[in-house]
Sequence to fold (177 residues):
Amino acid sequence: MIIGKTLFTTEQIQSKVIELANRISKDYKGKEIVMVGMLKGAFMFFADIVRHIKVPVLIDFIIASSYLGTDSSGEVIIHSDLKEDIENKHIIIVDDIIDTGITMNLIRERLLMRNPASLKICVFLDKEERRIVEVPVDYIGYKIPNEYVIGYGFDYKNNYRNLPYVAIFKKAHNKVK
Ligand code: IMP
Ligand code: MG
Fold:
């Protein structure tokens, strides 16, 4: 079996998304937010969370990659940068997961150089055990143990992103082409 145990069902995901969106709406009352989605992984979480936020939101994306297979390469490549000018704006970076923290740390430092009014980080999952670089994360959906996950945007070699739930990936039995 390739797709292992389900960690979070569609229902669990949706209720967590609403909980996070409500916190963000409350924290940013009277403000406008630039929500920055980290592609590709965050595409589902991002699309879900933005539609529950009740303050004005501008949408932008960064395409970055740092991962080869199931091991972090430690190298971050930025394939596509923001289109919006973020100076004096309130920014929230939204990613699927924070793992070693290498990607998020680099992106955060790059965006801070552009003088935003504020910058916060929101992730659906946190694999705390694997952290190499400390990064302040303001909104966390769930903390998970050191397991490789697929589904709900999470991939193994670009497969499984479309699954509507999060499951553990069983690498030992994989037959992914
Ligand atoms: P970091 O730089 O090590 O924190 O890597 C973060 C990126 O690695 C995430 O945005 C994901 O795209 C990817 N990643 C980390 N853990 C997993 C996983 O369990 N499944 C799928 N992708 C993962
Ligand atoms: Mg990612």
Remarks:
- The mean pLDDT is 92.
- The radius of gyration is 16 Å.
